[in-house]
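Field: sequence (string)
Field: structure_tokens (string)

Example rows 1 and 2, in order.
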Amino acid sequence: MDSHSASEPGSHTQEQTIGQASQAAQPFVADFDGGPGSPAPRVGQRPRPPKLYRIGEVVEYSGMSRQTIHNYTTMGLLRESRWTSGGHRLYDDSVFERLDKIAEMKANNKSIQDIRDYFAGLDG
């Protein structure tokens, strides 16, 4: 019988070795529920703060114009999360959900007032 036979005590098949290696390679990560879209913390480090987007990034990722984003913000349909010390608006991830909802409502022929009322009900 081969010296590396699976029947010998302490010997491992290739499948067992691969399974054990993949188990060993997975680091322990403590439970963390930072909410939808929140990244899990890295091992041994604090959780990252949520990503904030400048208006240029919102324009790039949403496909809407800077003026449209500005108009929706001044109408109260979008809210800034923060401002930089230089005066730039910063938006959180929810801006993309809101923009999608605005586009959906406009496609269903809802007026700006209807859309404003909808978000007023959400924002309470």
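Row 2 begins here:
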Amino acid sequence: MAPPGTMIAPATRCSRWRGTALRAGSDTSSQTTQVADEGVVVASELPGSSVPSSPLGAPIGVNSPCRAVPARLSSVWRVAASRASTRLIRTGKAVTFVSRPLTFAWLRRLKRKTRLKEARMARLIYSAIMSLDGYTADEDGRFEWAAPDEAVFAFVSDLERPIGTYLYGRRMYETMRYWETAHTIAGQSPIELDFARIWQAADKIVYSATLQAPATARTRVERDFDPEQVQKLKEAADRDLTVSGAQLAAQAIAAGLVDEYQLFVVPAVVGGGTRALPGKVRLNLALAQEHRFGGGVVYLCYRPA
């Protein structure tokens, strides 16, 4: 919408501007008149102007999607602007210019492509079970106090089901590789067998400088955690990824790669150990989901605000 006092020129033909392109007619004397009470501008020639105006009232330059109009305009136009449309009325004879709101088609297409790209990009999720005071393991490296009951285990399985790739540090990988052969152990519950199938079906990437070869299928070893490569992995993946292990997750969080935090807080205080979240990192998060379990565990899902 053009504010009162803005010089607006009739446009030459422009394929990227939605609307009908109009050319000026006969010459008139140079004048500019503003009708304040109607919010209307009456514009004619631009005396001495060498930079023409675009249909939006801004100078046309090399980055403009429209071709330049003549520097000297040759008709008087009244521009009646509103939020819904723009009408150009030539003095003495009405000529209607009908358009949609003043936006460029190419800009709308760019925004649409950006939204589609964002919608297709896989998310990197940090999932952890932690004590009430924020530790995934105590000072002795033990975490049996965090063992989930059946309700929590089933909930975790549902969260893990759509995951396509797990990112692990070496220690977390050595803990989780149990599920590669868990289905062969007698006495497994249906929930445990379900989780084993989910885990086996996903790809795994282990970041380790010392692990020579993986001991599980669908697994590869990377020597260094490269944030740029992980970002490319997110862009190429058609399913979400998770990062597990506090130390590896700290690198992903510091690099701004984590799109969601899935935290299970258990009713235990351990007094120290491995922190679930890194220090010296500031995050502004919004609570997206929460769930309380009968045993006192609380699930909290956060996303960047």
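free_text_note (row 2): Residues 1-91, 93-100 have pLDDT under 50 and may be disordered.
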